[in-house]
Amino acid sequence: MSKSCLFCKIISGEIPSTKVFENESVIAFKDIQPAAEKHLLFVHKSHTADIIDMSSNAPEQLAEVFAAIAEYATDKEFPNGFRLINNKGTGAGQTIFHTHFHLLGGKRLPGFH
Ligand code: 5GP
Ligand code: ZN
What we know:
By secondary structure, the protein is α+β, with helices and mostly antiparallel strands. It contains three helices and five strands. It has a five-stranded antiparallel sheet with strand order 1-2-3-5-4, with helices on one face. It is globular and about 40 Å long. 19% of the residues are buried. The chain binds guanosine-5'-monophosphate and zinc ion (ZN).
């Protein structure tokens, strides 16, 4: 728990969110500014700052987050598939420094190369 971290506050319930998935280690909630018809954020409950911090210092969290995504992102939930995005660093668009994965889907997504 990082006192000043927005996503830690969402995890603790101090800041409200629309949760779509939760287990003992991971939560997922709707992005407040959706960039697609469905736009969810998957977050491990233990704070790390970014994907490199998580991969270096808590690699087991990667498996837990991806298992949660696999459980949630079924063909029924995302019949057209989905896109998974992680931004690392301000230059890449990271604005919240609690590791999170954007799960985007719904109607056909624009090309991304
Ligand atoms: P980043 O830009 O760091 O990869 O992604 C941060 C995401 O968090 C953005 O897409 C932004 O819309 C979302 N976000 C920022 N503040 C809040 C909030 O208070 N609640 C929710 N649900 N999403 C937020
Ligand atoms: Zn945090």
